[in-house]
Amino acid sequence: MPYLNDNTSGEINRQCVVIICPHSSYRLGPYLRAAENLNIHVLVVSQGKYSLVNEIASGVHVDFSNQDEAFDKIMLSSAQHKVIAVLGIDDKTVELAARVSQALDLVHNDLKASQYTRRKDLAREALKDTHVFIPEFKKIKLDSLFKCGESPVGFPCVVKPLSLSGSRGVICANSVSELQAAATRIDAILHNEGLTGEERQYVLVEQYISGYEYAFEGMLHKGQLQCLALFDKPDLMEGPYFEETYYITPSRLSEAVQRKIQETVLEACKVYGLKEGPVHAEVRIHENDVCFMEMASRTIGGQCAQILQHATGLSLEEMVIKNAIGLEVLTEQFLNAAGVLMIPITERGLLRRVEGILSASKVEFIEDIEISVSEGYELVPLPEGFSYLGFIFSKAPTPEVAEQALRSAYEKLKIKTMPILHQN
Question: What is d(CA 8, CA 2) in angstroms, rounded to the nearest whole number?
């Protein structure tokens, strides 16, 4: 694809989009393909100097742990190009992208708004005195939970890190002993993640809210919120961990409830100050009310954006780029129902092989099966783990059929692992 190298001379008059992302991001590939389809040049900012991905290796290399230095380096490189948009496509990069966009006088969200969508404690504080229904919560020092005598919000409760995504480190506790055990596990996770400051020292303890969970995918433009898709999560997520598995669209909720979900997400956007770009929100329906769980100012994670393309024929990443550069984003009616199973990692071990892929792929309405990890890879379940074994995609006439196809295909897979032998 056409690409602007950081050292290319004579390219200052060519338009490009800056994409900021971790080198291991699932999202970069789809964004690069979308940019190519739109004939948009891309400048990739990442920390993968020796990456095998050409666009990363040839791009701008920064240290995300030093935001000021990264900002200066991006600004210096951007001066060599005609930058028309800056996109942070992962939770860790949205704040930096907002800062660069603001400095370049491009379409952006305020830095504070981007912080709200990354830090769960700031987000909860912003919403606590509004009409948005959220769980009762308490920000508390992690070490105070090691020998605690009670939960600050009662039982059951949910303990979660302030900033990690993908349900990593999120644990439900039903007793004091379970709360103490959860704190110990989260402490190890935060240590291994190398976090510092408040993100290392504090956690949120929240009231557990029962009910089915739903995911809202939307696009903001000048403060107006467009619903791109609403995903059902047909398996109850009751804990102790909250691994996401099935996503099905279009939703089977009533139109009235779907409108209420969109209104709730829009109200949260207004409180945060979000006005531009993609939003991915999680809600629960609890006693016929919409409980707002969390929101990120980026698209749905992993490879799951493919669901939208299966259902509508449109690329979510193309929509994001178009919106960022001021082109109209047109959506279409759903042509099909679609679904994805994020294949869960259920036990720790080294992956030997995945059997039954051919049989699973022959299940009617299955579109694709992607195994994301290689043989010999160490599989780590939640709450410590942060990846999936892979993805199964379906496209069908109805949501019910799309869901059943995924379940039938998953039943045919056999995950073979071997124990991990740790040396003393």
Answer: 12
Q: Which of 324, 328, 330 is nearest to 16 (CA)?
A: 324
Dist CA 266 CA 121 (whole Å): 19
* Amino acid at position 192, single letter: N
Question: H-type helices in 38-119, by residue range?
Answer: 54-57, 67-78, 94-103, 111-116
Q: Which stretches of the chain drop beneath a pLDDT of 70?
A: 1-14, 52, 302, 332, 422-424
Best CATH choice for the domain 15-108 from the list 3.40.50.20, 3.40.50.11420, 3.40.710.10, 3.90.1170.50: 3.40.50.20
Q: What's the mean per-residue pLDDT of the chain?
A: 92
pTM, 2 dp: 0.92
- How, if at all, do strands 366-371 and 390-396 pair? antiparallel
- Domains of the chain: which residue ranges? 15-108, 112-129+209-332, 136-207, 336-424
Helices (H) and strands (E) in the chain, counts: 13, 19
List pLDDT tens digits, range 290-306. Answer: 999 999 999 987 678 88
Q: Which fold has domain 336-424?
A: D-amino Acid Aminotransferase; Chain A, domain 1 (3.30.470)
Supply φ then ψ for residue 328, to 5 degrees.
-70, 135
* Predicted local confidence at residue 54, as pLDDT: 83
pLDDT, residue 422, reads 62
Left if phi > 0, otherwise alpha if psi is -120 to 50, otherwise beta: which for 206? beta
- Architecture of the 136-207 domain: 2-Layer Sandwich (3.30)
| DSSP strand pairing (337-343 vs 246-249) | antiparallel
- Tell me how far apart the alpha carbons of residues 101 and 111 are, in angstroms, rounded to a whole number: 10
**Is 346 in a helix, a strand, or coil?**
coil
Each residue's pLDDT tens digit, 148-187: 999 999 999 999 999 998 899 999 999 999 999 999 999 9
